[in-house]
Amino acid sequence: MSRYWLALLLVFSVQAVATERVVSLAPSLSEIVVELGAADLLVGVLDGGERPAALAKVPSVGHYGQLDMERLLSLKPDLILLWPGSVGPAQREQLQRLNIPVYVAEPHNLEQLTTQVQAIAEQLGRAQAGRVLADKLSKRLAELRQRYRRTEPLQVFYQVWNQPLYTVGGGQIISDALGVCGARNVFDDLKLPAPQVSVESVLQRNPEVILVGDQAQMDAWKAWPTMAARLLLVPDKGLERPSGQMLEAVARLCQVLSPDL
Fold first, then answer.
1. Per-residue pLDDT reduced to its tens digit, 53-81
2. Chain-wide mean pLDDT for the chain?
3. Any idea where the Fe/B12 periplasmic-binding domain is (predicted)?
4. Contact (CB, 8 A) for 61 and 23
5. DSSP symbols for 136-179
6. Residue 195, Cα to own-chain centre: how many angstroms?
7. How many CB atoms lie within 10 A of CB 199?
8. pLDDT category, 5, cuts 50, 70, 90?
9. What is the end-to-end Cα distance of the chain in Å, rounded?
10. Residue 118 DSSP code
11. 148, 258 in Cβ contact below 8 A?
């Protein structure tokens, strides 16, 4: 009989501490919660770009770099999902002092992304859904690496912005995405997440392909008629959101870089 009551007490204890109210401080993290079938747990999100339909009515706690701390606290979260770059250093420190569990996610490669999907699922009490999704992502990643592997990597410049000119450093997940596609980020030696570079430095590194975000960026490069690089448009913005959908965004990028495959 005593074992029965002990087991019952443990069940009620687990239910008492179960995550029920989650605030996500990055669109990619919000997307992961939706992919895990846990959108019902989200009581607040940090906005940045178009929301998934499942989150249309979830209250906002601000925008990228502009967190409304009062609004966040009013929602009484029992878990905060944080992408470090989504809020400033002072507010990050403030969050850590709130006595509310904070899970920090910042994957630097696609393998880390699959691991963090599983970890977030466990934080949400959706471990089984996390295992299923992480396994699916791992298999898709292995398939893409195998399919687009090259003996000599394609040398690629990935443009984030044009005025001033920004790219991604070697420790960024987008740089790893290029590697999955059999390409190499020509600025992979730079450690800053989004280093500013010059047109001259890009030309010195002699990329075979320049990936741009829109037609205006593409047109700007046409002012350099001696440049030998191919100009290609990044298919969509999915590469900028490290969530489960990113694997299919990588697949679309690979197809753009290697249409013959």
1. 999 999 999 998 899 999 999 999 999 99
2. 91
3. 21-261
4. yes
5. HHHHHHHHHHHHT--SSPEEEEE-SEETTEE---TTSHHHHHHH
6. 18
7. 14
8. very low
9. 65
10. H
11. yes
The answer to whether the pTM exceeds 0.85 is yes
- What is d(CA 45, CA 61) in angstroms, rounded to the nearest whole number? 6
Phi-psi region of 206 (alpha: psi -120 to 50; beta: other; left: phi over 0): left
Which residue has tokens 């040398």? 155
HEC assignment per residue over 188-238: CCCCCCCCECCHHHHHHCCCCEEEECCHHHHHHHCCCCCCCCEEEECCCHH
What span, in angstroms and rounded, lies between the C-alpha atoms of 83 and 46?
A: 10
Contact assessment for residue 105 and residue 243, using Cβ atoms and an 8 Å cutoff: no
* Listed range (4-8, 36-40, 110-114, 223-227) with the worst mean pLDDT: 4-8
Tell me how far apart the alpha carbons of residues 182 and 188 are, in angstroms, rounded to a whole number. Answer: 14
**Three-class DSSP category at 53:** helix
Paired sense of beta strands 79-82 and 161-162, if any? unpaired
Q: Which residues of 214-223 are buried (b: 16+ CB within 10 A; e: fewer)?
A: eeebbebbee
Could you give the CA distance from residue 106 to residue 62 in angstroms, rounded to a whole number?
20
